[in-house]
Amino acid sequence: MSKQKARFYCRKCKKIVEVYECYREVKVFPEIKPEFDVVTWCCSVCNTPIIEVSEFRKQTQ
Predict the structure, then answer these.
(1) 45: left (phi > 0), else alpha (psi -120 to 50), else beta?
(2) CA–CA dist 14, 34 (Å, integer)
(3) Which residues of 8-34 are buried (b: 16+ CB within 10 A; e: fewer)?
(4) Cα–Cα distance, 47 to 36 (Å, whole number)
(5) Helices and strands (H, E) in the chain, number of each type
(6) What average pLDDT is seen over the chain?
């Protein structure tokens, strides 16, 4: 659970808050986009999911 430098508006807290990466789905659709993960960022105050984004998986070679 890594803290992000991003801030988003939380509808539950009704203010702008810092977010952290609370969940990561690895290779969600391997047959369609194998190089992407779905990342959920949550509010650091109330732990409510705020945004889900697709993130490019870095290739380690």
Answers:
(1) alpha
(2) 36
(3) eebeeeeeebebbebeeeeeeeeeeee
(4) 24
(5) 0, 4
(6) 83
Tokens of 50: 């705020």
pLDDT band at 10 (very low <50, low <70, confident <90, very high): very high
CB 38 within 8 A of CB 24: yes
Q: Determine if the pTM surpasses 0.85.
A: no
Place of tokens 């945004």: 51
Mark residue 14 as left, alpha or beta (left: phi above 0; alpha: psi -120 to 50; beta: remaining): left
Reading the block at residue 45, the tokens are 């105050």
Give the tokens for residue 16.
């702008």
